Amino acid sequence: MYFKVFDAITWKYIDPYVPTHSNALVLDAGGGTGRWATQMARKGCKVVLIDASEGMLKIAAKRAVEEGLQNRITTKKGDITKIG
C-alpha cells in the first residue's frame, strides 16, 4: 500500500514536466526497473534509461516489452557520474 501512495504522489510532481510530443527525448538517469520510464513512454516520450545495475536493466527491458513500449524505451548500462 505504501508504494502505491508513494508512486501516486511522486508521479503527481513529475508528470507536469514530462513532454507529451512524440519527438521528446527524456533521460531517466538511474532509472532502475523503469517505473518512471514506462509512464513517460506512455505519454509519448522516447526514453533512454541508464542504470549501473544489469539486474535492474533486465527488469526494465522486460517491463517495456510487457507493456508494448520497447520501441520507446532504450536501456543502457552506465554510471551517471561518468556521463559527459
Outline of the structure:
The protein is of the alpha/beta class.
How does this model look, in words?
40% of the residues lie in helices and 19% in strands. It has a three-stranded parallel β-sheet with strand order 1-2-3, with helices on one face. The protein has 84 residues and is of the alpha/beta class. It has helices at 2-14, 35-42, 54-66, and strands at residues 25-29, 46-51, 73-77. The chain is built from three helices and three strands, in the order αβαβαβ. It has one domain (2-82): Rossmann fold (3-Layer(aba) Sandwich), CATH 3.40.50. The N and C termini lie far apart (39 Å).
Radius of gyration: 13 Å
Here the CATH topology equals: Rossmann fold
CATH architecture: 3-Layer(aba) Sandwich
Question: Structural class of the helices, strands and pairings?
Answer: alpha/beta
Work out the helix count: 3
List keywords for this structure.
single chain, 84 residues, 3 helices
Topology (elements, then pairings):
Layout: H1 2-14, E1 25-29, H2 35-42, E2 46-51, H3 54-66, E3 73-77
Parallel strand pairs: 1-2, 2-3
